[in-house]
Write a structure and sequence with these properties.
Number of helices: 8
Strand content: 25-35%
Shape: elongated
Pfam families: GntR (PF00392), UTRA (PF07702)
GO molecular function, one term: DNA-binding transcription factor activity
Number of domains: 2
Protein name: Trehalose operon repressor
InterPro entries: Bact_HTH_transcr_reg, Chorismate_lyase_/UTRA_dom_sf, TreR, Tscrpt_reg_HTH_GntR, UTRA, WH-like_DNA-bd_sf, WH_DNA-bd_sf
Keywords: DNA-binding, Repressor, Transcription, Transcription regulation
CATH architecture of the largest domain: 3-Layer(aba) Sandwich
Amino acid sequence: MKQNKFLTIYHELVESIKNGEYPAQSTLPSENELADLYQTSRETIRKALNLLSQNGFIQKVRGKGSVVLDQNKFDFPVSGLVSFKELADSMGEKPKTTVHELSLSHPKEVVQQALNLDENNLVWHVSRIRNLGGSDVILDKDYILYEQVPKLTKEICEDSIYAYLEGELGLNISFAKKEITAEDPTEEDRNLLDLEGFTTIVVIKNYVYLNDATLFQFTESRHRPDKFRFVDFARR
């Protein structure tokens, strides 16, 4: 029974976080303080804290300690094809979108490969920063075929590209192939997103097709991991 004491401490701390005793962005007591509180060793406390970290309740930040993470996460459907605006609207959130870049150019090699293009094609490059609750937490990088979308404006990109493509251009967006990875943040990520204390970023790459099987968009969405939960429904 004694060897499972860290689990008991873990569950008690989870309840304390859920009931608001330790609100989001606050810090838990130090390892020494918790060891005194629970009358146990620092090693036992460390095991409980590691489990809290693995399950998304805290983030260990150098110089600060164990910072409590926001448990009100967005559920991102893995198998669905939903725009960020549609998702935020469904959750009752009012995010802010900042267009960092909107340009039309010949694609670089990595985009050529993603969209099966050659260097003579023209591609829109849209880079957008998504702000939720006052923090910049997503960097969306979209590459869209000019052949399918001859016009894009900053106003369209600030609102919803998909609403424009489907409502104004009449495009029938049908399906997407997705790749999800966890990566180290790049210099660009750290410059554009609020990543202090975070050592990992979740990257979702979407290869988006029209109903005639035309691959017309490649998207790379880079997420701070504390705000999102990636979900799916499976049936056997």
